[in-house]
Inverse folding.
């Protein structure tokens, strides 16, 4: 592309409404134009960057077997009413743009596509033979953000890659989730970004229900807490730690109370919608430990889709209140969304029901919470599980009825983490803090949408089961701007080569010099033919202006047909290092290739 023919307008001064470097630079260098609040035009240079990022994303997705498609942006309200999200998404604080068509039908502009994909799955997936299945798209999303800002970082219209996977079971879901973790890692590495994958779900501490990919930059809206050994990193919203004074309380011996009485069992019956005999089958074991401030309720319930975690939480709160406790933790409550039975084998570290843990960790920061860790996975056969289980420091986990395991537990105080705290996985490690930009988010959804919308499949035994789902998002436009936020200097953008709009720019210092022009045009043609995407600055401008612009737009290599041509050479300047070399004209293409 010749600059003389491009819509190429750069600004000398920082635009007034831009707060962070990447936003200022993209505006100044003519990559984007603001059209309205959180609404931007991607000009030709930006579009090339976005296509490069999209291509990297696409290649990594395709390599995992995911299939690209394109879903509608106009979404019927009915779908969102089925999933139960219409009201929350369209009310005052909601982020969904909604509209009414000429037939008075309500529609929304897609902020995300769970509803659309689930309705497709409901209609098209019949059998376990069709699974697993993973569809993704790269498309514009609409979100009426409360505070659109920082250019493409938080737009109201932005480009996202979103993928949705469907599975027969948790194992298959976890496999795809792991593949996505790797694919996202590859995408960000290939895009030349420094990033961290962080835990984003306190529901399963130590587990991997949800991971955010954070590009590290001062301007990031998120805070990440991490350990130097790299073994722990979490969004501060979710991070937990050992309190500074944890030493003393680490192995507290808890005083055991009796198993809550019949009254509680009856309440649990109502809750589980079953008879007391069934409760005995369902509720394998309950006991309460009390350290005077916090009560720990240990409950094992066999997987039962009718368990309502919120109700259960209320119930457990009442039980705890009976003991005069402020807070509780429940263990091994089956996850309603995934309907997973937490068995001895599936409990890697201990488990706190998401709702309860969330409440707990968000709650009073002064109250230390407890984290129960299963010390090892040794299983001990129990003759009389109730008696055995009532030993302090042990907890019974039910696998199948009639087959229980006794697992030793260690009770460790944890709390909502802050900078300087000690890590739960290793008290020797302190937590450091960094700012991050969330560019990707992968999530195990379980059966949340398939259940609400009735998306089922038939398993090998001929039974109808709800589909398990995962969802995976990358902010393509946010990622592109994050690259600038991580890589710039006082003169402009320094694009990582992989996502730069062009690899090289041939600058003609003086377009009235026929020899300069001739050599430049020759190199320009040769480089493009060799696959080195090259711009030609053939504008009638002063050399200084051209050099400034080349620096500003951040093209990795600048080739100048200046004085050196007298010796059959051109000057090649690397944008990132400013290293300048004189290279024989005939060797330029092979050097840059
Ligand atoms: P945030 O916490 O920044 O609001 P989110 O958690 O709401 O993001 P997700 O629903 O997880 O976002 O969407 C997947 C990805 O889409 C995000 O990781 C982010 O990269 C991108 N994204 C989300 N909202 C925006 C936005 N308003 N502008 C640009 N990109 C966005
Ligand atoms: Mg958001
Ligand atoms: Mg977020
Ligand atoms: Mg997110």
């Amino acid at each position: 592309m010749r600059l003389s023919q491009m819509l190429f307008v750069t600004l000398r001064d920082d635009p007034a409404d831009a707060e962070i470097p990447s936003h200022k630079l993209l505006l100044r260098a003519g990559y984007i134009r603001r059209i309205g609040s959180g609404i931007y035009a991607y000009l030709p240079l930006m579009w090339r960057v976005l296509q490069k990022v999209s291509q990297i994303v696409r290649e990594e997705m395709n390599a995992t077997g995911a299939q690209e498609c394109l879903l509608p942006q106009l979404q019927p309200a009915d779908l969102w009413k089925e999933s139960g999200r219409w009201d929350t998404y369209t009310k005052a604080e909601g982020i969904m743009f909604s509209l009414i068509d000429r037939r008075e039908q309500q529609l929304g502009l897609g902020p995300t596509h769970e509803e659309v994909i689930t309705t497709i799955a409901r209609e098209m997936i019949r059998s376990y033979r069709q699974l697993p299945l993973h569809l993704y798209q790269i498309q514009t999303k609409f979100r009426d953000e409360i505070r659109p800002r920082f250019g493409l970082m938080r737009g109201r219209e932005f480009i996202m890659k979103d993928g949705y996977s469907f599975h027969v079971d948790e194992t298959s879901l976890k496999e795809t989730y792991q593949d996505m973790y790797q694919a996202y890692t590859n995408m960000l590495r290939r895009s030349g970004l420094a990033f961290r994958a962080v835990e984003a779900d306190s529901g399963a501490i130590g587990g991997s229900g949800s991971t955010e990919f954070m590009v590290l930059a001062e301007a990031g809206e998120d805070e990440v807490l991490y350990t130097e050994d790299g073994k722990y990193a979490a969004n501060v919203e979710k991070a937990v730690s050992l309190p500074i004074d944890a030493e003393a309380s680490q192995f507290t011996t808890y005083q055991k109370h009796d198993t809550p009485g019949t009254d509680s069992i009856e309440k649990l019956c109502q809750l589980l919608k079953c008879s007391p005999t069934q409760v005995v089958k369902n509720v394998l074991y309950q006991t309460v430990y009390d350290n005077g401030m916090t009560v720990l309720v240990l409950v094992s319930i066999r997987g039962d889709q009718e368990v309502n975690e919120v109700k259960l939480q209320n119930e457990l709160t009442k039980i705890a209140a009976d003991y005069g406790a402020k807070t509780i933790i429940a263990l091994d409550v089956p996850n309603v969304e995934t309907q997973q039975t937490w068995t001895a084998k599936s409990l890697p570290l201990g488990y706190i029901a998401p709702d309860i843990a969330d409440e707990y960790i968000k709650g009073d920061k002064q109250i230390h919470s407890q984290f129960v860790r299963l010390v090892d996975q040794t299983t001990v056969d129990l003759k009389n599980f109730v008696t055995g289980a009532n030993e302090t420091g042990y907890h019974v986990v039910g696998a199948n009825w009639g087959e229980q395991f006794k697992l030793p537990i260690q009770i460790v105080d944890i709390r909502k983490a802050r900078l300087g705290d000690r890590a739960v996985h290793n008290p020797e490690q302190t937590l450091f803090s960094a700012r991050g930009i969330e560019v990707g988010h992968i999530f195990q959804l379980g059966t949340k949408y398939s259940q609400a919308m009735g998306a089922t499949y038939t398993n090998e035994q001929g039974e109808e089961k709800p589909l398990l789902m995962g969802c995976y998002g990358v902010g393509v436009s946010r990622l592109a701007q994050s690259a600038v936020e991580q890589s710039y200097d006082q003169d402009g953008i320094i694009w990582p080569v992989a996502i730069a709009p062009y690899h090289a720019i041939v600058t003609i210092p003086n377009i009235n010099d026929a020899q300069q022009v001739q050599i430049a045009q020759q190199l320009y043609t040769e480089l493009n033919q060799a696959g080195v995407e090259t711009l030609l600055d053939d504008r009638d401008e002063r050399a200084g202006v051209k050099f400034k612009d080349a620096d500003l737009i951040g093209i990795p290599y600048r080739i100048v047909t200046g004085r050196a041509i007298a010796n059959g050479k051109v000057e090649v300047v690397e944008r990132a290092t400013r290293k300048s070399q004189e290279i024989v004209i005939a060797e330029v293409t092979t050097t840059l290739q």
